[in-house]
Task: structure prediction
Amino acid sequence: MNGAQDLGGMMGFGPVIAEKNEPVFHADWEKRALGVTLCSSALGLWNIDSGRHARETLHPADYLSSSYYEIWAKGLFKLLAAQGLVSPAELEAGRSLVAPRATPRPALKAADVPARLAGGGPADRPLDRAPRFAVGDRVRTRNMNPTGHTRLPRYARGKLGVIEHRQGSYVFPDTNAHGKGEDPQWIYSVVFKSTELWGAESDPTLSVAIDCWEPYLEPA
Amino acid sequence: MSDHDHDHHDHAHDDGSQLPEIALRVKALESILVEKGYLDPAAIDVIAETYETKVGPRNGARVVAKAWSDPAYLGRLRADATAAIAELGFTGRQGEHMRIVENTKQRHNLVVCTLCSCYPWSVLGLPPVWYKAAPYRSKAVIDPRGVLADFGVALPKETEIRVWDSTAELRYLVVPVRPSGTEDWSEERLADLVTRDSMIGTGLALVPGAAA
Result:
């Protein structure tokens, strides 16, 4: 979707300001926000793609005026409400108002955290059809504006690029975010010249590589 | 999300006596999740401690120092970075599918996630605020030299700049150029020259004598 998360190429946000000796967390609530997000997703009711979609469907003004842990927390509130885990009324009341529901997996225990973090959540999947494109092929990204989740940024739609690398086959976020299955697809590293993305006056020494799922691409 | 982003969420009230609204809501959420049996609060402590004390840019620095020192290891990183990084014990969340991109005199690499905050946690830890904020995510793909200038880095105008927008689950680790004058250095000493920013591409490796 064309939401506020899709920031590439926007202007007016000012310089990038790095904080010297930045702490990992700036406040205790940031730790808790990270923790409740990871632990809640471990219950098995949504996946990384639906999690991202919950964040990008925040109102653009809300998204752009929130810090990143605020965005995470607000996305989590939506996911928990949608799955019947914690309702907005419960959040308002600060206590449980309805009995808990069954979850695919039990609460993540502290003792199981190290293994869980070390294992991660691999997204590669076997695929029994050949890739449509080869390294060196010229491709054009589709000009598309889906209302659901996608990982093709606006600045790279309808653009000519060259396949530089085949990355393997992976879960397709455009379906997986919406409970329509993992539908694995080939991913290609596609390289675009700055002049293609940003016009003739742009810096000719710049190129941008984007990981594109096969359905985003057409032969060119 | 502007240039005062670093502190606006910490100070909802001038006297600092009250928590900001979002902190109160997260706190309320945590207690409800515990009450309903969905959450072991001690798990949060273990997660936070992992990224505060165990998993951070020292991991990536060790990978880079070894890549500089050991051509066979560099070869394995090029062929299968995930496996080569796992040799050093660095695996897991947001590092499941790794690739390295190597800086040279001719080409400088810069990594961004314009759509969210994808970042190689297993080798760099949790991303800094600026990496997740709008100024970097918007500017990196259209004006990377401007971003580098914000970090005080100026590259020759003929140097190619390659930006990697992390749109999928592949995670990119930049291998910066090895500083000259370090030919006989041990991996351990070399690792001290490898900053977090040099592995994102917003910085260069430190030169000998400048290491903290």
